[in-house]
Design brief:
Length: 497
């Protein structure tokens, strides 16, 4: 292909027990946005890690400008003009924004570090991105979204010819997505070839020129975005027609109140948060990023201190404010931050699955009953269709979406009354999302109650029995299904207080 900037041909990559890539073809043209799609574990990140020198391919060839190249390591990739923004960030949290942007390529005056020139250069890039962050800011004080933008700034500073973005919008707000797309278009006009991996298919229309779909480590096909439909892309991804993105709504709400939160306050974070959760209810929490939804969840779960307020579960007030007490009372919290809080990445899938109820699988002497524990773990991993060669695989080796499924399995294994799902489908493919929704319906039918925090409005609208909207740490509205729509939610989410 004459206009191809880069061609990957017959790429194969094996990990112990997994063929992650099986003779995959992929190409990138100058000035295009090429979406790379596929279910969790399809091999998207692995293909891009091969291209950016993180993983070595077992077979296949890579051509840049028609010349065969050997991308042996990330530095070589950088020299070739290939940059990647990883699905899980790679920033050094104790360094400043500028130090992160120029890591390994520090500005120097003689042999000394030239912080001033480095900060100026970083500042220029940040301004180009319309980012209001000082280059001297420590990365650990930034929000997830801001860290994402720093990753992008870092990639831009290399003047890359190829930019790979692995789920760049998973943690971004609408306005941040808009500015990301603006920058993407600017780069496109400069002739940069962009690979864009996302499970948020609705975004593609705004940005994609072509789309390549992978399934189970194999290449399925490449289409021009304009000549295809979302349905066609989805059936290429899942290998069958998926009639609907959401299962039909099945309300299971009872009158009984399971959880009451009363006047919950935390200085500068939460003000007078009060609401009821009923048995069998799915209560959606909506709001812009930073509205305080995760903070409410963490406060209920005892993960953060509160200055005042009450949490009453099944008629009993939680007297102490700690995670063990919350779990004991029957509350489970599926965190949005799976890498740091949700999983022990260095432990097996099986142990992670059992973590919330480890003592439940021990015999009276405190020794784990291996037969029982592996039975439960294998049942749960089948139920959630967790893709792993076996249950002894390290959780950290699974694809992003499959890691998220382990967190869900973990809480299913502990039979809790109230489950708080914080961004449960972030990074999860369409087919698996459907399964998670079905699972949530199954749970409420069994009499459990769910608080679902989600930034995806269609998801909140489709699943919730009621929707609480937050802004600046306060509840600004409580909407019934009839009252709730995208417009009413956005109105209360963006309300000036
Ligand atoms: N370092 C590793 N060791 C072992 N197996 C791995 C490793 N990295 C990836 N895999 C496996 O390779 C397969 C492809 O994973 P990959 O991360 O490329 O999927 P993905 O398409 O990016 O999925 P997702 O949408 O969930 O991010 C998965 O089965 C995964 O478990
Ligand atoms: Mg991935």
């Amino acid at each position: 292909m004459s206009d191809a900037l880069l061609i990957m041909k017959n790429i194969s990559k094996r990990f112990p027990g997994v063929i992650a890539l099986d003779q995959v073809d992929f190409d990138i043209r100058k000035g295009e946005v090429h979406a790379l799609l596929g279910e969790n574990g399809a091999g998207k990140s692995t293909l891009m890690k091969v291209l950016s020198g993180v993983h070595q391919k077992d077979d296949g060839e890579i051509f840049l400008d028609g010349q065969a190249v050997n991308v042996t390591d990330p530095l070589t990739a950088q020299h070739l003009g290939i940059s990647i923004i990883h699905q899980e960030f790679n920033l050094c949290s104790d360094l400043t924004v500028a130090q992160n942007i120029f890591i390994g390529r520090e500005h120097r005056k003689g042999w000394r570090l030239d912080e001033h020139s480095q900060n100026c250069a970083a500042s220029e890039i940040l301004q180009n991105l319309n980012l209001d962050i000082a280059p001297e800011t420590l990365v650990n004080t930034l929000t997830v979204a801001q860290q994402q933008m720093v990753e992008i700034a870092k990639a831009l500073s290399c003047n890359s010819r190829i930019l790979i973005m692995d789920e760049p919008t998973a943690a971004l707000t609408e306005s941040e997505i808009e500015s990301l797309f603006k920058v993407t278009k600017m780069l496109k006009n400069r002739g940069v070839g962009i690979v864009y991996i996302s499970h948020r298919l609705e975004e593609l229309a705004a940005i994609a020129d072509r789309a390549t779909v992978m399934r189970d480590g194999c290449y399925v096909g490449t289409v021009n975005y304009q000549d295809t439909s979302l349905d066609e892309l989805i059936s290429m991804m899942v290998g069958r027609d998926l009639d609907d993105i959401f299962p039909p709504h099945q309300s299971a709400v009872c009158d009984e109140v399971v959880l009451t939160v009363k006047d919950l306050c935390r200085k500068d974070v939460l003000s007078d948060v009060s609401f009821n959760l009923h048995r069998g209810e799915i209560l959606g929490f909506s709001g812009l990023m930073g509205a305080g939804r995760t903070e409410v969840a963490r406060a209920i779960f005892g993960a953060d201190p509160v200055s005042s307020g009450q949490i009453i579960i099944n008629g009993k007030r939680l007297s102490k404010h700690s995670i063990p007490d919350a779990i004991e009372a029957g509350i489970g919290y599926l965190t949005e931050d799976r890498k740091h809080e949700g999983l022990a990445l260095g432990l097996s899938v099986e142990i992670n699955t059992l973590l919330s109820n480890y003592s439940g699988y021990c015999n009276p002497a405190g020794i784990i009953d291996e037969k029982k524990s592996s039975e439960v773990a294998s049942k749960l991993s089948k139920r959630l269709r967790i893709k792993t060669p076996d249950l002894q695989q390290l959780a950290g080796n699974l694809s992003g979406g499959n890691q998220q499924k382990i967190i869900i399995a973990k809480w299913l294994c502990k039979d809790t009354d109230v489950l708080i799902f914080d961004e449960p489908t972030r990074g999860i493919d369409v087919g698996a999302k459907y399964e998670i929704y079905e699972l949530m319906y199954e749970l409420v039918k069994q009499g459990k109650s769910i608080i679902m925090i989600s930034s995806e409005l269609p998801e909140v609208l489709a699943l919730s029995d009621r929707i609480v909207v937050m802004r600046h740490g306060r509840i600004t509205a409580e909407l019934t299904r009839e009252q709730a729509n995208q417009k009413s939610i956005m109105k209360y989410a963006a309300l000036e207080s």
